[in-house]
Amino acid sequence: MIELLTTWARRPIPVLMIFLAACAPAPQRAGIPTQWQPSPNFDERRPNFVIIHHTGDDSAGQALGTLADPERAVSAHYLIGRDGAIFQLVDERSRAWHAGESRWGANSDINSSSIGIELDNNGREPFPGAQISALLGLLTDIQQRYGIPRVNFLGHADVAPRRKVDPSRYFPWATLAAHGFGLWCHRPVQLMPAPFDDSMALQALGYDVSDTQAAIGAFRRHFLGDEDARALNDEDRSLLRCLLDEKML
Fold this sequence. Notes:
Blueprint: H1 2-10, H2 15-23, E1 49-54, H3 60-67, E2 78-80, E3 86-88, E4 114-119, H4 129-146, E5 153-155, H5 156-159, H6 173-178, H7 198-205, H8 212-224, H9 234-248
Parallel strand pairs: 1-4, 1-5, 2-4
Antiparallel strand pairs: 2-3
Helix pairs in contact: 7-9
């Protein structure tokens, strides 16, 4: 018996075992002395937002190079090509670097609570039908698995209005809303009586209003397909009120 154990001990350790041991992540510990007493009561990160981007590139190949470049330090969970091909770049359980400095409502760390989806588009062109069809399929899959509320499907410009304009005024938000992803006003808009606080209403919808003009620009781009960041008029305010009502449904 001893001889058998000695013989087994001299055998080389399988490469797979070495690999698995090397890949096992160490627990994130406090920076001060503590006693590690692990609990089984936990699970993985659960995203509660989906943020949609356009790449700004002219091809999926260029975008893949950017999203995998360590020096650029940007990433997304998914990239969808113009032809509808879907590439996954980051595990959904991990935090991708796609939203940067951003905010929606009280959430000031969108990266930690979201799935980021990049669309192969230079920002100056419509989004092809095959691409939007693939996006809808992916959003349906994500929503079914995580139960993400429809109001939490947003664009990069919505959560970072001072810095970003994607996914551009060409993005078909009404189509997404018709499938249950994102807000849209589905009723005739009735003019609102004065007074109406633009900043407070935009904030209630979710926008960061530390720069109200930027928030207005993001609102108009998303819901009116308009790049003009001029002040809201009465019709715009009525649309905003309609969206707030939709948010409460």
